[in-house]
Each structure stands twice: as structure tokens, then as C-alpha cells.
Amino acid sequence: MNSQFKKGVLDMCVLAILDKGDSYGYDVADALSSSIELADGTVYPILRKLASDGSVTTYLKESQNGPPRKYYHLTPIGRNRLEQDKKEWRGFAKAVDEIIGEEGHYEQTGIPEEA
Q: Model pTM?
């Protein structure tokens, strides 16, 4: 997949994963890589950036198999950002689909056009 396509949506994907529950970096990377091909180490800079802008917070949690793990938790700022990003993504994806001839895509899949 074109790396430029991925760059624009990885932050939103990470936020969406964390919206389902707190997680540590490896699990976030694993969840993403099960759907999107990623280079090793791609997720950690994104998590650091999201933490620095207040979208996520971190905490340490004891692990049964080694040292404590750093977990990431979605903040209200992050949840608002996710909702805004999803809305913008849906509008953008719909416009691209119309340009490339997939205008009926949303109706066919049952994906709502606006959230």
C-alpha cells in the first residue's frame, strides 16, 4: 500500500484502537499490523506524539512476564480528535470514491456517510 495513504490515517487508527480500551505499545502495533502493513517501530513515534499533544496519557502497569509495561489511555481530547478525524475521513473517502467512480460504495456496504 502507498505509504502516503497510511501516513494520513495512522494517528486516527491508533486513537480508534485505544478507544476500545487501554493498551501498551506492542499490542497497538500488533492490532494495526493485522490490518495494515507497517514497518517496525512505526507506532511508537505516533504514540509519543499523541501523548505530547494530550490525546493520550500513559501509566505503568505490572507485567507477569517481566518489567512493567507502559499503557496508553485515550483522553477526552483524544476522543474528540478521533470523532473529528472520523468525520473528516468519511467526507474525504466519499469524495475520492466519487472521483474514482465508486460513488455507490457507501450505500452498498451499509457504511454511514456521516457520523
A: 0.81
Q: Which residue has the cell 494530550?
A: 54
Residue range 15-32, pLDDT digits in tens: 999 999 999 999 999 999
Go through the chain and tell me how many residues it has. Answer: 115
Q: How many C-beta neighbours within 10 Å does residue 74 have?
A: 23
**Cβ 78 vs Cβ 46: under 8 Å:** no
DSSP state letter for 62: E
DSSP bridge partners of 71? 24, 59
pLDDT tens string 88-105: 999 999 999 999 987 655
* 16/7 Cα distance (integer angstroms): 15
Q: Nearest-5° angle of CA 40, CA 46, CA 50?
A: 160
Distance CA 27, CA 71 (A): 10
Helix or strand holding residue 63 (H, E): strand 56-63
With 0-12 / 13-18 / 19 or more C-beta atoms within 10 angstroms meaning exposed / middle / buried, residue 82 is: buried
